[in-house]
Amino acid sequence: EVQLLESGGGLVQPGGSLRLSCAASGFTFSNYVMGWARQSPGKGLEWVSIISASGGSTYYADSVKGRFTVSRDNSKNTLYVQMNGLRAEDTAVYYCAKGRLFGATHNWFDPWGQGTLVTVSS
Amino acid sequence: DIVLTQSPATLSLSPGERATLSCRASQSVASYLAWYQQKPGQAPRLLIYDASNRATGIPARFSGSGSGTDFTLTISSLEPEDFVVYYCQQRGNWPYTFGQGTKVEIK
Questions:
Q1: DSSP collapsed to 3 states, B85-97
Q2: pLDDT > 90: what percent of chain B?
């Protein structure tokens, strides 16, 4: 059974940093694109970033480009996102998700983890 | 960015009735459209991908249709657990985008 477990969320001040992790199990992690999406009451659902199976290709939403960095450690079956320069509008539940198809970078994502809440506030 | 507009925002129906949800894209996404279901306190779950393919484990009462800019999710006979929120999402172009959601509520 595929399991995705996010961690690292919490309360951070504006301008601060946070690193989220997503521990994956139940599949060959290195064969699948992975992604981060977020959901906030004000902005709904938004894809934040995706990273190819090898880690060689990354994509970012314009709203986070230059502030967030996605990475993966295929030896540890773990996905990360380093979030710097956090703003109030980054407040959201952050989900990691697994690509549906083997190898393809542009993909549907299924399943998703349970999410971790990031709150940016002073 | 491609804007997805879902309608209606809220759909009030009774168990056993047929639900028809719409998603319109601001430009063609070919068949690169998916539908997700989200229950309260849970992550979204993939229902339909590539406009009309049911994801693994999804009941046959869920079906999708459409291509280009106009898409439909149909629930043939609503079960009690179907009264939740549904989102469409496109991957025709990055950034992938979601619609704002349709809430299916009990009438």
A1: EEEEEECCCCCCE
A2: 99
